[in-house]
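INFO  loader      accepted 1 record
INFO  loader      residues=119
INFO  predictor   begin
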Amino acid sequence: MAGGYSQLPVMTNERDVKGIVTWKSIGSRLALGVVSGHSREFMDPHQEVRSDTSIFNAIPIIVANDYVLVRGFDGRITGIITSSDLSIQFRLLTEPFLLLSEIENLVRNMIGDQASRTH
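INFO  predictor   done
INFO  writer      dumping tokens
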């Protein structure tokens, strides 16, 4: 909670992932009455893609699981992509087009208002 993490991979080293602990996995276990001090009781199987996987192929995995771990060519887990990361990237990519659309609509409205005043 202190670090703001939503998903924590459980790993014995940088290549061996045992599973992942998420808010969803914790909540579901607590709802089932699981009380334990062991991370294995709260783990779900992890989701991963290779670092050369197209982001378009990774998106359905991220949407379904809220994250995906990225495995590099050397077999190490090199990162994680979350739903939040996708949202930020989507905004960065679409914002210029949305702003352009807004400007275009404002100009059309101005032209339409001006045209209706002259007739």
